[in-house]
């Protein structure tokens, strides 16, 4: 049996650990084998979490006046606490999966995430979220993708411009001067209306010259 001094030491250590953590899960256990207990601890350790079987009295005192106080009523029977000072999603994944796969040995009592008490359904919902590392990877992908696209567009502009300039340079002088030649030809060629007007004027002048006036006709016919 532990002495009072040892119990106080255990209380101080647990209080400090929980005060530095961001989330914790309270689980119950029954008829757990050494192998199964070690398996659970290894999985939690690989997730960056800590695990400890606790005395309910010490656990209640450790969470008193802290963000874990809401879990006080769940410190009954055989109790263990898993906690982490890092990503609560990883802890939720590890605990929810192991408890679900080992219902004969473990039961979920309560969880506290960012100061909020959650049940097993809510823990499973949290576990379905991407972890912090996954979110960072996705964020970096989103941030890098537009930059890559912009760089591609910017690099394509001078390349496309060079192609257009090259095509213009490859055109023959006749092709480049075609438009000017057509305009010059259009200016030199009179329109249909101008041609018709000129023809009418010439015809009228010719008719006027051929037909003598009445005065000339009378003079020619009168005998002397």
SSE topology sketch:
Layout: H1 4-19, E1 23-29, H2 34-46, E2 50-54, H3 56-63, E3 79-84, H4 88-101, E4 106-113, E5 116-118, H5 120-127, H6 132-170, H7 173-176, H8 178-188, H9 192-210, H10 214-221
Antiparallel strand pairs: 1-3, 1-4, 2-3, 4-5
Into how many domains do the coordinates divide? 2
Report the biggest beta sheet as strand number plus sense, adding barrel if it closes.
Answer: 5 strands, antiparallel
CATH level 4 superfamily of the largest domain = Ribosomal protein L10, N-terminal RNA-binding domain
How many β-strand stretches? 5
CATH C-level category of the largest domain = Alpha Beta
Write the CATH architecture name of the largest domain: 2-Layer Sandwich
Structure description:
This protein is an alpha+beta fold and 224 residues long. The protein folds into 2 domains: 4-129, Alpha-Beta Plaits; 135-210, no CATH class. Helix content is 62%, strand content 13%. It is built from 10 helices and 5 strands; from the N terminus they run H-E-H-E-H-E-H-E-E-H-H-H-H-H-H. Strand 4 and strand 5 form a beta hairpin. Helix 1 crosses helix 3 (56-63) and helix 4 crosses helix 5 (120-127).
Summarize the structure.
The protein is α+β, with helices and mostly antiparallel strands and 224 residues long.
């Amino acid at each position: 049996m532990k002495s009072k001094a040892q119990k106080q030491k255990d209380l101080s250590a647990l209080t400090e650990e929980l005060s530095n953590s961001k989330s914790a899960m309270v689980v119950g256990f029954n008829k757990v084998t050494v192998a199964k207990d070690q398996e659970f601890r290894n999985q939690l350790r690989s997730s960056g979490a800590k695990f400890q079987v606790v005395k309910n009295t010490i656990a209640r005192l450790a969470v008193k006046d802290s963000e874990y106080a809401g879990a006080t009523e769940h410190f009954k029977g055989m109790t263990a606490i898993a906690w982490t000072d890092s990503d609560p999603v990883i802890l939720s994944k590890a605990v929810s999966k192991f408890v679900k796969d080992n219902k004969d040995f473990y039961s979920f009592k309560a969880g506290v995430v960012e100061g909020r008490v959650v049940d097993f359904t809510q823990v499973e919902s949290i576990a379905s979220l991407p972890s912090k590392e996954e979110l960072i990877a996705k964020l970096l992908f989103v941030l890098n993708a537009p930059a890559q696209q912009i760089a591609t567009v910017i690099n394509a502009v001078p390349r496309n411009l060079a192609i257009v300039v090259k095509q213009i340079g490859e055109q023959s002088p006749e092709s480049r001067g075609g438009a000017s030649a057509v305009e010059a030809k259009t200016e030199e060629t009179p329109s249909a209306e101008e041609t018709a007007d000129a023809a009418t004027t010439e015809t009228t002048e010719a008719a006027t010259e051929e037909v003598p006036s009445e005065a000339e006709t009378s003079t020619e016919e009168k005998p002397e």
